[in-house]
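From the methods appendix. Each design record in this collection lists the tokenized structure first, followed by the designed amino acid sequence. Records were kept in a plain field format so they could be parsed without special tools. The example shown here is representative of the layout used throughout.

RECORD:
FOLD TOKENS (136 positions):
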């Protein structure tokens, strides 16, 4: 293929634009996959805690309230957040950190979001690298 020197800049620019779009799609797919996997890890950890705990809370409603929220920011792009939808979200802080009891003392902690964060810390780079390597 022959390219006129005058057209060289726009051709290279078009190639780089197409590549950057492919990278953005691969990055978005990787982040979607990571968010879903992190949610699964958090749900799995919450299920383990619910079998150990005799807290009086309805863990089934709490666990079914987990969701992934996408927030778009013009500077950073789209962010995926694993969270608990209402009204169950009120329990998250109390379960993660424990809380004071009416007659003194504290309840025990039931940490479950740490498993999702640990998964992301270990696997994020691998998943993103695999998606980027798949770009033709």
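DESIGN:
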């Amino acid at each position: 293929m022959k390219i006129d020197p005058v057209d060289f800049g726009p051709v290279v620019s078009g190639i780089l634009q197409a590549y950057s779009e492919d990278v953005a799609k691969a990055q978005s797919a990787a982040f979607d996959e990571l968010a879903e996997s992190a949610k699964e890890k958090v749900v799995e950890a919450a299920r383990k805690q619910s079998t150990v705990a005799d807290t009086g809370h309805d863990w089934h409603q709490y666990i079914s309230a987990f969701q992934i929220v996408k927030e778009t920011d013009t500077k950073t792009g789209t962010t995926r957040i694993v969270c608990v939808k209402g009204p169950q979200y009120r329990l998250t802080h109390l379960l993660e950190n424990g809380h004071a009891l009416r007659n003194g003392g504290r309840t025990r902690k039931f940490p479950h979001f740490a498993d999702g964060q640990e998964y992301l810390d270990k696997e994020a780079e691998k998943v993103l690298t695999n998606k980027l390597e798949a770009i033709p």
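APPENDIX NOTE: The chain has four helices and two strands.
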